Amino acid sequence: MGTVLRLALPLTAWLAAFSAIYGLNGWLCTTDLTDAKARTVLAVAVLLAVAMQVGLFIWLRRCDWQAAGPTLRGVALTLAVVALVGTAWTLLPGLLLSRCV
Amino acid sequence: MSAVILTPVLLTGCDETLSTVHPAGPAAAVIAQLWWVLLAGSVVITTLVAMLVLWAWRRPEGAVSERRFVIGLGLAFPMTVLAALLAYGLIIGEKLLPHQGPEVVSVTAEARQYAWRFGYADLPGRITDDVLHIPAARPVDVAITSADVIHAFWVPRLAGKLDAVPGHVNTLRIEAASPGEYAGLGAEYNGPGYRGHGFTVIAHDPAGWQAFLQGEAP
Amino acid sequence: MNALQRHRALSRIWASDPGWRGWCTSVNHTDLGRMFMAVSAFFFIVGGILAMLIRAQLASPRSAFMGPEHYNQIFTMHGTIMMFLFAIPMFEGLAVYLLPKMLGSRDLAFPRLTAYGFWCYVFGGAMMIFSLLAGIAPDSGWFMYPPLSSTINSPGINSDFWLIGITFVEISAIAAAVEITVTILRYRAPGMSLVRMPIFAWYALVTAVMILTGFPPLILGSILLELERAFGLPFFQVAHGGDALLWQHLFWLFGHPEVYIIFLPAAGAISTILPVMSRTRLLGHPWVIASAVSLAVLSFGLWVHHMFTTGIPHLALAFFSAASTLVAVPTAVQIFAWIGTIAKGRPQLHLPMMWMLSFFATFVIGGLTGVMVAVVPFDWQAHDTYFIVAHLHYVLIGGFVFPMLGALYYWMPHVTGRKTFFKLGNTAFWLIVPGFHGTFLLLHWVGLLGMRRRIDTFDPGQGWEVINIIASVSSFVMAIGFALVLIDVVVNAAVAIRGSRDPWGAGTLEWAMPTPAAPYNFASLPQITSREPLWDTPELPLQLARGEGYLGDPSRNRRETLTVEPTTGRPEYIVVFPGNTALPMLMSAVTGLFFLGMLIKAYWLVPVAALGVLACALVWTWGLQRPAPEGPLPVGRGLSLPIASEVAHPPGWWGSLFLLVADGTFFGSLLFGYAFLWTIAPNWPPQQWAEAGLLPVALLIGGTFLALAASRVRSLWPVTCAAMLAMALAAVMVLRAVPDPGQHAYAATVWVLAGYAVLHQGLALIMAGFFGATRIAGHAPETTGGLHNIARLWSDYAVAVSVMGIGAALLPGWG
Ligand code: HEM
Ligand SMILES: [Cu+2]
Ligand SMILES: [Cu+2]
User: Fold this and answer.
1) Ligand closest to the CA atom of residue C386
2) Quick check: C68 and B193 in contact, CB under 8 A?
3) Looking at the domain assignment, is residue A100 inside a domain?
4) Tens-digit pLDDT profile for residues C185-241
5) What are C385-422's pLDDT values in tens digits?
6) Is residue B31 part of a domain?
7) Does residue A99 belong to any structural domain of this protein?
8) Using an 8 Å Cβ cutoff, are B7 and B22 in contact?
9) In a shared domain, residues B126 and B83
10) Type and span of the H or E element at C635
């Protein structure tokens, strides 16, 4: 069971961060923060999400994979990389665009 | 703008009034061009995949490089294409948004089952039903809302569509390159009268627009 | 005991009741899998007939065949039936039939739950068919956007059929998903570690978990909309603090994953069949697993691409546009892994393989048009036109129907035990595939020429006529092809000659049994040492039939199978299955009364039926309890294992855990909806927040600590019950403090939050009481440990949702 969770964890973390930052932007548009400040908040949130993924990758590398074996370790690390790349791919481009229009 | 000139050449002899591939304004033109790029890319990729399958089928049995198939074809190739495409789409999308500008004309559109009602910032109090007047060759921002269910405002030859959602106001940038009449549609299913839920956009030349603003019935 | 005697003994233990009674009382997965697939094929025919009516209407301009009132019901029901009553149940049926056989188990984890889900599907589907025949079918489109689908604009019963009927059917999806998840994780042959699990099981696992997390938002949305329609709680009415866009978020939070829930099982079938047809192993196996998992999770971050035209800011659209392009990457990995598999193997053009090729020819185009509509500006034009209709059929038919037809011809010899004799299937192939492309390819273009989806007819002169007549004629060619497939299947099942056991030379376990499968699947369970047991040990079927595996000795005279530790496949305990019973059918009929009461507004029936369901459930679970322990029992090959009722985490605990995953997603969606309304909906804040004072807060905190502590001590079960009552009291006090729920979406949401909390407090109370009853009845502590853990799980969950739900309701009132 632990193995299955480890496989699912990085991408689930991506989903959580992704949805949260989407929500954060929606909320920021209802406040009267200046554009520059709001963008900084979003950028910090995205960087935190990226950092979290890096952390997860490192943690998964260090985990004990004795029971699951090298194949699943490879799958888990691949998925962690997918989540890391995915975080950057899905969240970075938006930061350059119109925020509330 | 090249697409505006290009597409009629490709599709001669048509008089489709609802066609997105016969653009009559900058937004629709940019999107039509995007479509031709997408189509060309897709034809190339489909052909490549078909040839690959054919090759794979006829190839004699024997090991193949997992790296080449999975990493080369499965990861690197789509990611390169998609990154370029994503950037292209987002840059266009950003350009099509209703940014502020000196030339911009503001109108309102309110949808209901099954009619459209338009108002004009430059002519307070003036309401037109099922006909929207705009000046040609000037950007127009349409503030869209709904009085009942969800509808969508769509003039296929001028721009993409945007929904009319009750309680919300959405703004769409449209522009007609030259004077004329353009067919508009309600493009979100809204009940038994959906088929007939259309309207007309009349784009005036500068003189005609002045006359309209003066309150003369066009 | 020789093989034949063993076969007789096991058959006596496992057989379903003879004759028509067997249909109602069978809990056997082979029976139920076949029934599931047969019923979903029936719904495919119904949906297909509706599609033919659509194409008949659209064949020519200004068609007078039917008016919009009928047309709207027909396209709505076509989409609804195909998505909810055909595609998902077909996956469930295939998984129910195949999984235990592939995994080396004798049945699914919860046989009676399989039957319960099946009957919920049948009864719910019957409701939908009734509405169609009576001419009062839903007519707001398969995504049922309010306010169009809400009372003001759809006053009739039509929308209620959708909301209530589909929710009823969803029970079967959730039941099957819990079942499939637990089965794949635990019910495998000894030695079948995760890496040795067949690839289809990986896909099925991923799909089942997606159902658990994808369907709850839709169920929530349906409940909220039905509450609005029935009792005027204004969740989607903007004048009262609701928002029509909330529905779209909830629907597409479900709707996009739904597409992958449909595609992934088909991809699982391809990954299984294509290597066999190419006489080789799947290329890049770990990459394919990683792709399936990536697709599953990424697909939950795409929902807004169905809402690109609703006026969401460009920055947010960019997130979803980027995610929608990204999801094409794992799809590409799989496609190229499959092509690589063909390349390295020796492909043979049997009929299943032809369907695999038609998949490539179709799905690749559907995927590319999918990437097109992921590009935001293009979608602004293409959205809600026939371009989308064409795209979605390329994906659904190319990505699901075609691979499933391949699967049909691949596994038919297994189901019937016969050789495919008549070659009607080849003719059908050549009608269906060209017919399909003739129907849909040019519809992309007509969409770009401005033809909107869902119009009941059209005027000539837009350049649409020729394309539509080609589409209609081709669609009838395709329909004839499907009819031939049907005839082919019936004829082959009835009269073809008996075939050999493993006609394709496959390596997976489902072929290690005589076909058609005996009710017990395996006379004894194998020890697995690789992913293709039959390729390593061709004599395995004989060994198993001779009883050389595990549980080969039927002398305990009951239905038994083994479970394993999920990662390593080390055998853990014996499961004893229940026998034939009509209880699941009865319980789903009573469940049906619950939904019927809501549908026809006979609200007195609703609580009565709910009590009836509870009574059935109690009888059901009481039958599982065992008063006295048996200790470890021999399972063969020198191994002894405990039985499930004597372990700390029995199957029921795992089932509860995954049911709670779905339940938690439901609750999370509810909190999301609340936050969405709060920040986005116009007409907030409400005139008045709920202010309930300190007493309910004190009760809640007190109840929390009490419940957390008491549920961990066996003898304190009455305290757990009391704690639940205290928290329920807190919820009721909050409800008394909120203003009229008909006036504002805030108050309406508080009602749902509190109602949800009370429901779970009630469930936890019943669980604790049930555990108490086993103690009073004097059951041994060895056999009630697992039950205690289950009760504790539900108690902890009730505490969590009470604190969060009631806390969220009271939060604004504190500020
Ligand atoms: C058997 C051949 C089929 C044909 C000829 C066909 C034809 C059509 C047509 C013409 C429409 C558009 C109706 C309209 O917008 O007015 C449509 C809608 C739809 N179809 Fe099919 N279809 C077929 C099979 C399927 C299958 C197998 C599925 C799913 C697994 C499916 C799912 C849908 C959905 C979800 C819609 C949208 C309904 C809506 O707009 O509410 N179809 N179909
Ligand atoms: Cu729409
Ligand atoms: Cu989608």
Assistant:
1) 1
2) yes
3) no
4) 999 999 999 999 999 999 999 999 999 999 999 999 999 999 999 999 999 999 999
5) 999 999 999 999 999 999 999 999 999 999 988 877 66
6) yes
7) no
8) yes
9) no
10) strand C633-636
Ligand 1 within 6 A of CB of C203: no
Question: Is the ipTM above a cut-off of 0.90?
Answer: yes
Please indicate whether residue C188, judged by its CB atom, sits closer than 6 Å to ligand 1.
no
Contact C198, C508 (CB under 8 A): yes
The residue range of the domain holding B112 is 105-213
Do A1 and C567 count as a contact with CB atoms less than 8 A apart?
Answer: yes
- The protein residue with its alpha carbon nearest to ligand 1, atom 1, reads C48
Type of residue numbered C155? P
Per-residue pLDDT of chain B (218 residues; tens, 9 = 90+): 344 444 443 444 456 899 999 999 999 999 999 999 999 999 999 999 999 999 999 999 999 998 899 999 999 999 999 999 999 999 999 999 999 988 899 999 999 999 999 999 999 989 999 999 999 999 999 999 999 999 999 999 999 999 999 999 999 999 999 999 999 999 999 999 999 999 999 999 999 999 999 887 65
Asked if residue B133 and residue B53 are part of one domain, the reply reads no
Last residue of a domain, one of B65, B96, B127: B96
- A78 domain residue, yes or no: yes
Residue A47 lies in domain? 2-94
Does some domain include residue A101?
no
Inspect the interface and report whether the beta carbons of B94 and A101 lie closer than 8 Å: no
CATH of the domain at B181: 2.60.40.420
Nearest CA to ligand 1 atom 19: C79
Q: Are residues B86 and B117 in the same domain?
A: no
Domains of chain C: 253-518 (1.20.210.10), 648-814 (1.20.120.80)
Do B192 and B142 lie in one domain? The reply is yes
CB C742 within 8 A of CB C231: yes
| Distance in angstroms (rounded) separating the CA atoms of residues C315 and A23 | 12
Query: Of B69, B96, B123, which one is at a domain's C-terminal end?
Result: B96
Ligand 2 centroid to Cα of residue C309, in Å, is: 7
Using CA atoms, how far residue A83 sits from A76, B70, C329, C780, in Å, is: 10, 18, 13, 48
Tokens of C570: 């080390």
The whole-model pTM stands at: 0.96
* Distant-in-sequence contacts of C645-648, Cβ < 8 A, 24+ apart: C645/C576, C645/C783, C645/C786, C646/C573, C646/C782, C646/C783, C646/C785, C646/C786, C647/C572, C647/C573, C647/C785, C647/C786, C648/C785, C648/C786, C648/C789
CA distance B103 to A69: 66
Note the pLDDT of residue B217.
61
Per-residue three-class SS string for C459-516: CCCCCCHHHHHHHHHHHHHHHHHHHHHHHHHHHHHHHCCECCCCCCCCCCHHHCCCCC
On whether residue B209 sits in a domain, the answer given is: yes
* C361 contacts on B by Cβ (under 8 Å): 50
Q: State if residue C549 touches ligand 1 by the CB under 6 angstroms criterion.
A: no
Which residues on C lie below 8 Å from B64 (Cβ)?
Answer: 283, 340, 343-344
- Same-domain check for residues B92 and B129: no
Kind of pairing between the strands at C633-636 and B115-120? unpaired
Element (H, E) at B134: strand B131-135
CA-based nearest residue to C175, from C787, C584, C625: C584
Q: How many domains does chain B have?
A: 2
Quick one: which atom of ligand 1 is closest to the CA of C142? 41
Quick check: is B112 in a domain? yes
- The total number of structural domains in chain A stands at 1
Token digits of residue B129:
């039903």
Q: Does C287 touch chain B (CB under 8 A)?
A: yes
Q: B185 and B130 in one domain?
A: yes
